[in-house]
Amino acid sequence: MYNLEELYQEVIIDHNQRPRNFGKLDSANKTAEGYNPLCGDQITLYIEFNDTVIKEIKFYGSGCAISKASASLMTESISGKKKSEAMVIFNNFRNMITKTSESKFDPDILGDLEILKGVSNFPARIKCATLAWHTLKSMLDNNDQTVTTE
Amino acid sequence: MLDINKIRNDFPILSRKINGKPLIYFDNAATTQKPISVINSLTDFYTTYNSNVHRGVHTLSMQSTDLFEEARNRVAKFINSQRSESIIWTRNTTEGINLVANAWGKKNITPGDEIVVTAMEHHSNLVPWQILAETNKAKLVIIPINDDGTLNLNNIDTIINSKTKIVSVVHMSNSLGTINPIHELCEKAHKVGAKFLLDGAQSAPHMPINVKDYDCDFLVFSGHKMLGPTGIGVLYVKPDILENMEPFLTGGEMVLEVSYEKASWNELPMKFEAGTPNIADAIALGEAIIYLEKIGMEQIREHEIELTNYALNKFEKLNNLTLFGPLDSSIRGGIFSFHSEYIHPHDLGTFLDNEGIAIRTGHHCTMPLIRSLNIPATSRASFYIYNTKDEIDYFIQSLQNAIKYFTHDK
Ligand SMILES: Cc1ncc(COP(=O)(O)O)c(C=O)c1O
After folding, report:
1. Size of the A and B interface in Cβ pairs below 8 Å
2. Which of A62, A148, B214, B336 is a good FRET partner for A102, with 20 to 30 A between their CA atoms?
3. Domains parsed from chain A with CATH numbers
């Protein structure tokens, strides 16, 4: 049995109510869409790259508290980072959330993102937390298709 | 009045605690819980009668055949079918519709024909027709719905016309709770010479079903939504249609005589039951029907109307969410889909689970319908014979707590 508070940390509720970097970004030179058909969650990522650096990032869409907070926290954590650095954060985040025995993550790399660690105890909600990240990854991989979690 | 306490005692799972709280099972539209008599029937079969059915000369085979066919007779009576040969075992509703679309549809739908369904169909009563329409070059026509979740029949006489070959309609919507006017639609279909298929997945468990009275040509439903096990369902086909239908799956059981070159088909209903059937689960479904009939389908419907009125009343007082479907319990089953801008269905589902309450969130296999409501998903609570007003109270209270939890500033 897991405590609800572990999942819905105050910070998560706060990011859900007041998502950071929420909206469209006119200066974006890359966009990507993510979609979870099962719950209807939808996200569009807008990034303005300056060469390989994520100069500015915004997201727009609808989703549950976990997916919204995760997207919001993601934008804060990768803003100003190089693509390669963002990929390292992605891998650490995925390892934290999916919690397999061999997966390791570095709390120093994750920073605030560690707030979402509780999601790993709620298997039905893992896809909510990873939607924004998979959308980001597809953009970094230069894949123009809409990402679905299915 | 049902003796709910007595009924609840027949369902072992209802004494489970979920996250330390008593289980409130409100996901009955997805699948229902099973009474001990159904559970025992399964063990009984495997410990005492287990053997393959039909053509057996040994005692076990004869006994299992008897039980298997007795269950079929019971289903026939349950829906008031004159003949038990009209009852074909399937895995579920989905398989029943696929059987009709393939065995009847492929042969009878010709280019230019029209197939009619409604805007509130479950994917299982939509996708098989989409495919049939495409392969046989027919047109799929949709009966639209009104804002209150009832069918919009304003243009029904244009929609169901001389080109229409089959009208396939959900009896009770699993997303809205709406009970559709089956007599009227069936009559309109027959008037233009079309067949009528009734999706009884949500109605057969909750109200009396009478194929003779409806005059439907096909009826499909699932055992698992009416106290029976998973993996067993029913397709009823009117006798004269059944005689002329080609087989769906082929192989053992469904043949009469086989040479290396060709085969002739077994008598009905075996012609449509290729391979070893789901014997134990069919027998257990018979047991579920015994249980339902002991309570009485009229009484079950009455109990659910009472719960529905009670819940409608409660929902009416909530101004922070939208309830879908008709507000008149005479045309609504105990299914409550709703949406609140203050809480995402997924978060609500997790919150309520923490309170021991099981509801379903998402599109409920009716994606086009949910999309037309302009929301990403709904939350759905659905009732059955073992649910109580106290449970509804606790659910409504928890719902309010959830909205508070996600909207208040910490
Ligand atoms: C109205 C309706 N039709 C069809 C189905 C499909 O039933 P099954 O999954 O048992 O085939 C369902 C089940 O959710 C339903 O509610």
Report:
1. 55
2. A148
3. 4-148 (3.90.1010.10)
pLDDT digit of tens for each residue in chain B (410 aa)?
899 999 999 999 999 999 999 999 999 999 999 999 999 999 999 999 999 999 889 999 999 999 999 999 999 999 999 999 999 999 999 999 999 999 999 999 999 999 999 999 999 999 999 999 999 999 999 999 999 999 999 999 999 999 999 999 999 999 999 999 999 999 999 999 999 999 999 999 999 999 999 999 999 999 999 999 999 999 999 999 999 999 999 998 899 999 999 999 999 999 999 999 999 999 999 999 999 999 999 999 999 999 999 999 999 999 999 999 999 999 999 999 999 999 999 999 999 999 999 999 998 999 999 989 988 899 999 999 999 999 999 999 999 999 999 987 54
B257 touches chain A (CB under 8 A): no
Give the homologous superfamily in CATH for domain B4-30+296-407. Aspartate Aminotransferase, domain 1 (3.90.1150.10)
Burial class (CB in 10 A: 0-12, 13-18, 19+), B370: buried
Please answer yes or no on whether B410 and A16 come within 8 Å at the CB atom.
no
Contact across the interface for B370 and A40, Cβ inside 8 Å: yes
Q: Is B92 in the pocket of ligand 1 (CB under 6 A)?
A: yes
Distance of alpha carbon B96 from alpha carbon B200, whole angstroms = 11
Protein residue whose Cα sits closest to atom 12 of ligand 1:
B201
CB contact under 8 A, B406 and A13: yes
CA proximity to B75, closest of B212, B209, B213, B169: B209
Quote the CA–CA distance of B12 and A34 in Å, as a whole number: 42
pTM of this prediction exceeds 0.90: yes
Q: Does A1 touch chain B (CB under 8 A)?
A: yes
Identify whether B186 is a catalytic site residue.
no
Q: Does B13 touch chain A (CB under 8 A)?
A: no
Q: Which fold has domain B39-293?
A: Aspartate Aminotransferase; domain 2 (3.40.640)
Q: What SS3 state is found at A45?
A: strand
The CA B93 to ligand 1 mean position distance, Å, reads 6
Minimal Cβ distance to B350: which of A37, A40, A125:
A125
- Does the Cβ of B124 fall within 6 Å of ligand 1? yes
A5, A11, A39, A149, best to mutate vs chain B, most B CBs in 10 Å: A39
Cα nearest neighbour of B343 on chain A: A64
Asked if the C-beta of B345 comes within 8 angstroms of chain A's C-beta atoms, the answer is yes
Q: How far is CA B310 from the centre of its chain?
A: 24
Q: How far apart are CA A131 and CA A41, in angstroms?
A: 8
The two tokens of residue B43 are 């063990």
ipTM of the complex model: 0.87
Strands (E) in B119-239, as ranges, are: 139-143, 164-170, 195-199, 218-222, 233-237
List where CATH 3.40.640.10 sits in chain B: 39-293
